[in-house]
Q: What sequence folds into this?
């Protein structure tokens, strides 16, 4: 796995950034800036599973392994979701994805907050995230500041 990191300063308080990222409607806009039509099904609670899905129904299943409200979230990907809704943990694609983690950290600053995303991914996924996270961060900033 390779660790990659992205962050942005946002002129809004941590609670606003947290709410913007986790609200199902604004999440669609944030994630959709890089992955059009993306959405999630599930609850942002420690121990819960969340399905991150595309309009075609495929995506990934992640377990929330840690969550401290307004501070941090860590999710571990446990399966790939096929377009028919079935969970795949054993194909070559799934083996290259399962075990990837995402950690989001929300920090207070004097004039707002900082959002940091850290990922541990198979190097084959790095380019996709290097290309997509700047758009995601830009949309999170835009929506949080307005």
A:
């Amino acid at each position: 796995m390779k660790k990659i990191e992205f962050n942005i300063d946002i002129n809004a308080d941590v609670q606003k950034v947290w709410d913007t990222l986790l609200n199902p409607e604004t999440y669609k806009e944030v994630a959709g800036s890089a992955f059009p039509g993306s959405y999630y099904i599930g609850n942002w609670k420690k121990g819960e599973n969340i399905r991150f899905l595309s309009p075609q129904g495929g995506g990934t299943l992640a377990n929330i392994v840690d969550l401290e409200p307004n501070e941090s979230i860590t999710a571990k990907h446990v399966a790939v979701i096929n377009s028919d809704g079935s969970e795949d943990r054993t194909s070559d694609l799934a083996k290259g994805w399962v075990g990837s983690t995402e950690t989001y950290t929300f920090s207070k600053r004097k004039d707002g907050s900082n959002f940091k995303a850290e990922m541990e991914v198979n190097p084959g996924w790095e380019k996709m995230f290097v290309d997509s996270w700047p758009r995601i961060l830009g949309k999170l900033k835009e929506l949080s500041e307005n």
Observations:
- Residues 126-145 form the longest helix (20 residues).
- Strands lie at 2-10, 39-42, 49-53, 59-68, 72-81, 87-88, 101-109, 112-121.
- Residues 89 and 95 are 7 Å apart (CA to CA).
